[in-house]
UniProtKB/TrEMBL annotation:
It comes from Jonesia denitrificans (strain ATCC 14870 / DSM 20603 / BCRC 15368 / CIP 55.134 / JCM 11481 / NBRC 15587 / NCTC 10816 / Prevot 55134). The keyword Hydrolase applies. Keywords: Hydrolase. Pfam families: HAD_2. GO terms for molecular function: sugar-phosphatase activity. Gene3D superfamilies: HAD superfamily/HAD-like, Putative phosphatase, domain 2. InterPro entries: HAD-like_sf, HAD-like_SPP, HAD-SF_hydro_IA, HAD_2, HAD_sf, PGP-like_dom2. PANTHER family: FRUCTOSE-1-PHOSPHATE PHOSPHATASE, GLYCEROL-1-PHOSPHATE PHOSPHOHYDROLASE 1-RELATED. The lineage of its organism: Bacteria, Bacillati, Actinomycetota, Actinomycetes, Micrococcales. This is HAD-superfamily hydrolase, subfamily IA, variant 3.
Length: 225
């Protein structure tokens, strides 16, 4: 059975159900500045680099500098995650069996270090061999830089890695880097793409699925039969 050189995990929406935290922070900030923010606006920001997200919020009436917007979002979301880390169903168990298989893991998130570290601290020690955050890369998702950096940090070939993502932005980033990509359903419907595998829940990520993907095929738990 063929295993990946590493698994590269997105965080928000993939391992933890934190997107509602981000959305509430965005709604609150825009409202404070008298602007209008809709759920469609919030969904369009899922997976974005925070500095890019801040520029979008400026266009919706937030009269603050980009860095101040980013700091507000980080502080607000970090506070909520520190009170409760909203693990996705089956996430902890899936990470545990991956580690048992001795497959290196990297966390690849556009959240900044304080938020990512809070999550990492909630996981068993040694779960992640590398952590790449939005404040560490020159260009965030959808650019390939985060996944390229993760593979380089682990000392592996990104094309021999599997990335697990939930957002269109993150999927684009992982595939552009050359990682074999598996999308998981979260708050945004996962649309089919060439060479993209799709699962609905993390317990569908099994050794046999990794083997299929590493042999160049795709799996799709959205397709009946």
């Amino acid at each position: 059975m063929r295993t990946p050189q590493a698994i590269l995990w997105d965080m928000d929406g993939t391992l933890i159900d934190s997107e509602p935290y981000w959305q509430q922070a965005e709604f609150d900030l825009v409202a404070q500045h008298g602007g209008v923010w809709t759920m469609d606006d919030a969904l369009n920001l899922v997976g974005y680099d925070l500095h890019d997200a801040a520029k979008v919020l400026q266009h919706h009436g937030v009269d603050l500098e980009v860095d101040k917007i980013v700091n507000f979002l980080i502080t607000t979301v970090s506070t909520r995650i520190s009170r409760h880390v909203p693990w996705r169903d089956h996430a902890a168990e899936t990470l545990a069996w991956v580690r048992h298989q001795r497959i290196p893991c990297a966390l690849v998130t556009m959240s900044h270090t304080p938020i990512a570290q809070t999550f990492v601290d909630s996981a068993p020690h040694g779960t992640f061999d590398a952590v790449i955050t939005g404040d560490m890369v020159p260009q965030g998702k959808p650019h390939p830089d985060p996944y390229v950096m993760a593979a380089r940090t682990l000392g592996v070939d990104v094309t021999e890695c599997i990335a697990i993502e939930d957002s269109p932005t993150g999927i684009t980033s992982a595939m552009a880097a050359g990682a074999r990509t598996i999308a998981i359903q979260a708050i945004i419907p996962v649309q089919p793409r060439p060479h993209l595998s799709r699962i609905q829940e993390l317990d569908q990520l099994t050794p046999s699925v990794l083997d299929v993907v590493m042999h160049g095929a795709t799996i799709d738990f959205f397709t009946p039969g």
